[in-house]
Amino acid sequence: MVCYITIMLKINKFTLRELVVESAGQFGSHPFVSFIGEEPVSYSGMIPVIRHLQEDFRRMGVHKGDRVALLGPNMPRWAVVYLAVVSMGAVVVPIMPEFTPGEIAQVLDHSESNVLIASQKQLDRLIANELSLPEHRLLLEEVDTTPVREGKKEPEGQALLPAEVEEDDLAAIIYTSGTTGNSKGVMLTHRNIVFDAIRGYDIQPVSTDDRFLSILPLAHTYENTLGLILPILGGARVYYLDKPPTASVLVPAMKAVRPTCMLSVPLVIEKIYRNSVVPSLTKNGVMRTLYQTAFFRKILHYLAGKKLYKTFGGKLVFFGIGGSKLDGTVERFLREARFPYAIGYGLTETAPLVAGGIGRKIAWQSTGPVIRDVEVKLEESRPGSGQGEILVRGDNVMKGYYRRPDLTEQVMTSDGWFRTGDLGSFDRKGNLHINGRIKNMILGANGKNIMPEDIESVINSYKNVLESLVIKQKGKLVALVHLNRDEIEKRVQDLMSDARQSGKEACRSVEEYIDHHMKELQEYVNARVSKFARLQMVVYHPQPFEKTATHKIKRYLYSRTP
User: Fold this and answer.
1) I want to staple 69 with a disulfide (CB 3.0 to 4.6 A). Which of 113, 248, 350, 472 is the partner?
2) Handedness of CA 193, 199, 204, 210 (dihedral sign)
3) d(Cα 466, Cα 481) in Å, to the nearest integer?
4) pLDDT digits (tens, 9 = 90+) for 81-128
């Protein structure tokens, strides 16, 4: 049995500059970041690279508090540039590569960024749209990391440029692309980010033995804090993909890296479950029958879990899931499969972690307990209901929305509580349960409040359903449902083949089967929800829903007025 000893980086000040300096001293030549199959930038080796960047920034006129925009895909250079900016006291403005040119232009203008650091692809896209860009620009591909890779020696005493960086200084402005379509600049301080990373370490300690595989956008706080800053605390190594994380890219990457830690969103594991696991466990009549019984389902899930674990490289100890609520059926599979998953809850405004825990140690469908040294309370709309809006107070809570004091005032109370806009409750063991977004709440015909996420969870547990969205349309409760068409086409072919052999009648087309499927689905859901939450209509949605960077459906694109 191998015993790993994890030692968290000792820091005296909660700043990202302190993290950079101390990690370089403590972890030295240990690998820090790299593409798969490439030589890494080491912890001590990042210091001269950062120093060179800071000198470039100074020549561009960047000083403490100035904004530097960072736009590009995940890569080692992205991570080093981010650390170079914040460790000189400037403010980094990470921009989602998925943003449209118009959205990027708005961010650059609103953030008043002095410098733009972008990948060649992104810069070409902006220039092609004839957008107004900052005068000073730097290509990510031109960031020089050769002093490390070629083993060149730097002058004695080489260090970061002198800078006074305090815990409450602004470190980053994160522009969210939310489900409502309104992008706001969230101001996070050094204390916010470092504190939250340390609390992530409380849930899952990491060490120099750990290997992170980064698949979510670094421009999002979730991956940034827990997939970049957290590894630094333990001297872990972070790998990046040089292509989008499709299945054909991920599978060989996981085989090569054999990651011990990964961060994901529910959609990733839900797709694996519905597209790979379920079809493999229900491929014939006998297995479908066995799968419907709890005893055999658990055995099949355990066997499927062993296979899935090997697909992920066979060394995984932490698979963090956050960004939105995990489907209950999928979580049941992960538990019965004994897959090493963990659940977290948070928002960009909370840097992001608020609550979290290792899956097998917390209540099913909960997000676990609130992290240490953070306060959470519920503001109940109906006293004694046990449910209410989640309010958070602690060192992880943002400074406010950049240049929007009006919006800041709406979400921050005078005594420092942040209104999350999420409806939640606590169980008797202190686990926090998320019951949906208050702004998504639908008022039923009888005046009852309906949480669409609850109905969607039931819909998504039905066979062949990939994702769904419940909206109010012309006074009716309607579900838009996206199906696994490939599986349906196979099912129709099987039914037609069986019909020819038996002489029985079967569906003559995929569309006919889908119509029948929608009717069955409506009956299935209405038998499992409250009377006032029953669906009046179920509509097939042929295309996947448009989503945010953390794969949450952009509801505002599909919502209809009553």
Assistant:
1) 113
2) positive
3) 8
4) 999 999 999 999 999 999 999 999 999 999 999 999 999 999 999 999
Q: Where are the domains of the chain?
A: 28-149+204-257, 261-439, 442-557
Task: Quickly name the fold that domain 28-149+204-257 has.
Answer: Rossmann fold (3.40.50)
CA atoms within 13 A on the CB side of 540: 17
Predicted local confidence at residue 500, as pLDDT: 62
Task: Decide whether 28-149+204-257 matches 261-439 in CATH topology.
Answer: yes
Give the tokens for residue 486. 């490939």
Residue 347: both structure tokens together: 């928002």
- How many residues make up the chain in this entry? 562
The C-alpha torsion from 155 through 161 and 164 to 167, rounded to 10°, is -90
Range in 177-181, 294-298, 394-398, 504-508 the model is least confident about: 177-181
Report residue 522's pLDDT band, with 50, 70 and 90 as the boundaries.
very high
Q: What is the 3-state secondary structure (H, E, C) of 260-323?
A: CEEEECHHHHHHHHHHHHHHHHCCCHHHHHHHCCHHHHHHHHHHHHHHHHHHCCCCCCEEEECC
Q: Among 340-344, 487-491, 493-497, name the one with the lowest average pLDDT.
A: 493-497
Provide the mean pLDDT of the chain. 91
3-state secondary structure 418-478: EEEEEEEEECCCCCEEEEEEHHHCEECCCCCEECHHHHHHHHHCCCCEEEEEEEEECCEEE
273-315 per-position pLDDT tens digit: 988 999 999 988 899 899 999 999 999 999 999 999 999 999 9
| CATH superfamily name and code, 261-439 | ANL, N-terminal domain (3.40.50.12780)
Q: Mean pLDDT across the stretch 144-168?
A: 69
The C-alpha atoms of residue 68 and residue 92 are separated, in whole angstroms, by 5
Starting at the edge strand found earlier in the chain, the sheet holding 418-426 runs 375-379, 388-393, 418-426, 432-437
Q: Compute the distance between CA of residue 366 and CA of residue 449 in angstroms, rounded to an integer.
A: 21
- List Cα–Cα distances, 136 to 60, 66, 68, 116, in angstroms: 7, 13, 10, 6
How sure is the predictor about 2, in pLDDT bands with cuts at 50, 70 and 90? very low
Q: What is the DSSP string of 146-189?
A: HHHHTTPPPPTT--PPP----TTSEEEEEE---TTS---EEEEE
Q: Are 78 and 72 in contact (CB under 8 A)?
A: yes
pLDDT score of 142 more than 70:
yes
